[in-house]
Amino acid sequence: MRYKSKKFLIDGFNVDKIAKTYKTPVYCYSFKRLRENIKDFKKNFKRINPLTCFSVKANSNKILLNEIGKLGLGADVVSIGELLKALKSGIKPNKIVFSGVGKTKNELSFAIEKKILLINAESKSEILEIEKIAKSKKRKVNVGIRLNPNTDAKTLSQISTGKKENKFGVSEKRFLELTKYIRHSKYMNLKCLSVHIGSQILDIKPYEKMLMVLNKIIKKTNYHFEYIDLGGGMGIDYKNSNKKLNLKKYSLIVKKFKEKHKTKIIFEPGRSIIGNSGILITKIIYIKEGHKKNFVILDAAMNDFMRPALYNARHRIIPAIKNESQSNKTYEFVGPICESTDKFSTNKKFQKLHENDLILICDVGAYGMSLSSNYNTRPKPVEILIKNSKIKIINKRQNLKDLI
Q1: The pTM is what?
Q2: Out of 53, 192, 338, 362, which one is annotated catalytic?
Q3: Which stretches within 9-123 are classed as H helix?
Q4: Which residues contact 81 (CB under 8 A, 6 or more apart)?
Q5: Chosen CATH of 100-267 out of 3.30.1330.30, 3.90.1280.10, 3.20.20.10, 3.40.50.2000
Q6: Comparing C-alpha atoms, which of 404, 381, 397 is closest to residue 302?
Q7: Mean of the pLDDT values across residues 313-325?
Q8: Would you place residue 154 in the very low, low, confident or very high pLDDT band (cuts 50, 70, 90)?
Q9: pLDDT tens, 360-394?
Q10: CA atoms within 13 Å, Cβ hemisphere of 94
Q11: Is 28 a catalytic residue?
């Protein structure tokens, strides 16, 4: 993804031509970048040889999941819908982990029937429900228990999952109680200790603290877990500032942890695999003059891309075609939805823009289309994938007539 002769190209394709062919807004993914991300992840954790389960909630497009599966990854799912998509995409049940705090009886029953690798339980009630279903099916089910390690990932509060005030996992006391209970159950195999402390982590210190907590609790259980599921949360460089999580350093401390406990490691990356592989191409409808800033009204809105409105996430916004001019006014990039939160970014230094210019929102591969909605009765955008110098529609633009 780069500029050539002032025009932005994605895997050799001119964004302007993509917009003319597929209209806007359009999600565009680079297979080359996706493959490089997976290759880089595998290289950094080669010595650990983990089972890497892609976090489907980050992007649940079936064609992308199929490509991810063919590149050797499994799936981390949090609903029966995601589980079905993973299976339909060709990912094997023995490489699927089911997470989440509110799995229903039907979801648990389906997961047990499909013989997936693990169900990571998050409460005593869920454990009892799994046991009840397993007994009725005369099965022995592989389960894990998700620990809440009370570890602050030092990231956005809205995407923190490892502190005691968060809804995820169980306390140390409850973890020890559930470990004893499952070990004596006829219908469950205790296979895994699971943990996940948050998302968009760029500092290794929260992971170091998390592993120290796990060391202590494993010692207290006096139990050998076949798997330790360390979750995901690895961040990406949204600001283009070269600030990245040191995966090599993380792999070294995980390697020591693995050797100490003689266990297999599971990772559940999502954003770090798919995030920077996608851009959202959108067109300027109007430029509206304001008192201190100009509103650049795009044809993409918060229903198409929710992250900035949902938790004030920052994404780079760049022009499809560069020019040498600079605006003397601040630009606020907004969508047409009737909400004040329907805005993407405010830029003080930007080139001079005109109505009908194309704008690119960067790094939207994770939690972009998967968080989209039909708010304001707006059809969802088209998704395309560039692979081997060819463009493929991987999700058609919703038809307004069908939507209504």
Answers
A1: 0.94
A2: 338
A3: 15-22, 31-44, 62-70, 80-88, 105-113
A4: 60
A5: 3.20.20.10
A6: 381
A7: 94
A8: low
A9: 999 999 999 999 999 999 999 999 999 999 999 99
A10: 0
A11: no
